[in-house]
């Protein structure tokens, strides 16, 4: 009898025969897998959030949102003022460049309208238009006895589209002291005294009455938009506060003012038609809190610069 057969009999008759090696090694593996699954289930239960924990987290997030919301509002306001300042700077640069490149005269018109009821005058939206002389002359007669005496629209050409800036107001800021390069220390404007003050050198409170409006007077030579309108009454916008650029790059307020060393356009953020109240100053030199900007352009060189706070 072969030894292998004897071994098999002994296994049968002499008690429990040992399990094959393959089965012995497979059973601990299955047991280990079961233990791992149980541990994993316990860890998942331990890492899950309870309803109370979720409510606490939601409450903390809500409190944080309330605390940081004003910061986001401030950032948006600063962004709006900055964008408006660069838009105005771009329009002024465009008018000056066009005048020099085409050896002609250009005009930039400023109009502030009621954002809730356009195109009526009011607050909340600044509208700007750039026009140019077709024949290279000023077109108007500087000795004209008529006031106003609108520039002949048939002799003008529109330069670019209308510029509209929402939620912006042109105020009359307190003047910089000229000691630095910040908003508060920006170059000062010329003081003409006699009740006029600085208002021959800036644009602000366009729809206010004299003396708290700048420019101090309306232009004798306004223009309208669109140029195709047969008369001012049929036009959409009537620009009575203007800035004229000559072929050499010089600029004059309302076409007839003396060339100023510095001309300023102030910018203040609004919420629709609501304009923030000043925190100081008086009359035509007001102080406002928050984000403000001033765009300055030199009368002779036509160089523009933005000052912000």
Written overview of the protein:
The chain has one domain. Helices cover 29% and strands 24% of the residues. It is built from 3 helices and 13 strands. The radius of gyration is 38 Å and the shape is elongated.
What order do the helices and strands follow?
Answer: HHHEEEEEEEEEEEEE
Mind telling me the C-alpha Rg?
A: 38 Å
Low-confidence stretches: 1-13, 21-25, 71-78
Gross morphology: elongated
Roughly what is the average pLDDT, rounded to an integer? 86
What would you call the structural class? alpha+beta
Proportion of residues in extended strands: 15-25%
Q: What is the count of DSSP helices, taking H or I runs of 4+ residues?
A: 3
Number of domains: 1
Work out the helicity level: 25-40%
What is the first-to-last residue Cα distance? 108 Å
Question: What's the total number of strands?
Answer: 13
Biggest sheet statistics: 9 strands, mixed
């Amino acid at each position: 009898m072969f030894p292998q057969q004897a071994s098999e009999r002994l296994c049968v008759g002499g008690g429990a025969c040992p399990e094959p090696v393959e089965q012995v090694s497979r059973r601990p593996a299955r047991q280990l897998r079961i233990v791992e699954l149980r541990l994993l289930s316990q860890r998942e239960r331990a890492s899950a959030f309870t309803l109370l924990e979720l409510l606490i987290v939601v409450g903390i997030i809500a409190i944080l949102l309330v605390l940081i919301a004003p910061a986001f509002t401030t950032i948006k306001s600063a962004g709006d003022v900055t964008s408006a300042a660069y838009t105005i700077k771009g329009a002024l640069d465009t008018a000056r460049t066009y005048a020099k490149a085409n050896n002609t005269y250009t005009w930039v018109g400023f109009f502030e309208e009621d954002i809730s009821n356009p195109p009526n005058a009011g607050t909340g939206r600044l509208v700007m238009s750039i026009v140019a002389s077709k024949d290279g002359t000023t077109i108007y007669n500087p000795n004209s006895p008529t006031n106003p005496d609108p520039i002949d629209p048939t002799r003008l050409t529109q330069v670019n589209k209308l510029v509209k800036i929402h939620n912006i107001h042109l105020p009359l800021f307190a003047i910089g002291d000229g000691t630095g390069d910040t908003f508060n220390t920006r170059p000062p404007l010329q003081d003409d005294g006699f009740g006029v003050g600085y208002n021959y050198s800036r644009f602000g409170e366009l729809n206010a009455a004299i003396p708290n409006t700048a420019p101090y007077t309306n232009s004798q030579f306004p223009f309208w938009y669109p140029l195709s309108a047969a008369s001012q009454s049929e036009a959409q916008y009537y620009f009575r506060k203007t800035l004229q650029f000559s072929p050499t790059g010089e600029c004059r307020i309302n076409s007839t003012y003396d060339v100023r060393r510095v001309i300023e356009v102030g910018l203040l953020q609004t919420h629709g038609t609501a304009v923030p109240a000043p925190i100081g100053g008086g009359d035509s030199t007001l102080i406002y809190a928050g984000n403000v900007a001033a765009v300055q352009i030199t009368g002779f060189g036509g160089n523009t610069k933005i000052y912000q706070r």
